[in-house]
Input
Amino acid sequence: MLFVCVEPISDFKLYEDIPCFLPPRIFSKFDRPIDYAFRPDVRSKALENSEKVVQLSAVQGRLRRANYSYGISYQQKGAVPTKPNPDAPDSNHPKLEALKQLFEERPVWSRSALQAKLKLPQTHIKGILALVSYYFTSGPWKTLWVKFGYDPRADPQAKIYQCIDFRLPKEIEVVEPVRYKRTRSIPELFQLSEDVGGSSSSSSRPQQAASGGGGTTTGDVAVSESVFIFSPDTLPGQRQVYYQLCDLRDDALQRCVHSNDGSEPSQCSESSGWCADETYAKLRKLLAEMTIKTAKRKQ
Output
């Protein structure tokens, strides 16, 4: 942008005092004023928890949750984790053996699928997952939990466990309104206080998540399989969903997944994994067509 001065500016105008306003380089993410000034937070104090320092910050206002899970990126080289984090506490959760059995039957799972299979609340399954599996932070198996010692990047047969994210077409909103993921809640996942006969405070959640429930008995929670299985006769419960390719229950979709069986690429791709390059685009197109038909049929 070019500014042209059409009138001469006197020295008086150039040196005249004016209010100085400098916009901040960044804006605070907190909704209340705090005296921070880019110095160490003197109000934070260290608490000793199982020989591991946990920070309690006055700015955050709660304990940082202990995280004993192994998360690796797709680009990370070398061997995958083969055993749990040595700092992870032992657990005698009643569903731990059932979880191990599920990973024997299938080496890669989504957390929502495991919640539905085991009928566990999120606060419990997060702790025991770290004892049997690790997860990917990127690539075709992003956010999925993988059995210790198994590397899907080295096994072409692992393409059926890859993840695809699907967003509902806008046309569906006119026919069948679907709630956003943030507003969608699975009430049974948040009935922990009723199941155990007491309230679960926020201060106790880090310990529950770390210990996998610590052997506390909780009633089963019912989670619909529609949160991780796609069926042409059922609409997804949220606008954006994540499916493993093996959980797409339709012949046309499975033909697309297995279209390159026996001729998989020599190296796994970060974008399409062991599938053909065009597979994900075809799958999303088929998913969109099927959901639109289902929504219109349910009118």
User: Anything to note?
Assistant: The CA atoms of residues 26 and 38 lie 13 Å apart. The two ends are 54 Å apart (CA to CA). Residues 45-61, 182-217 have pLDDT under 50 and may be disordered. The longest strand covers residues 45-49.
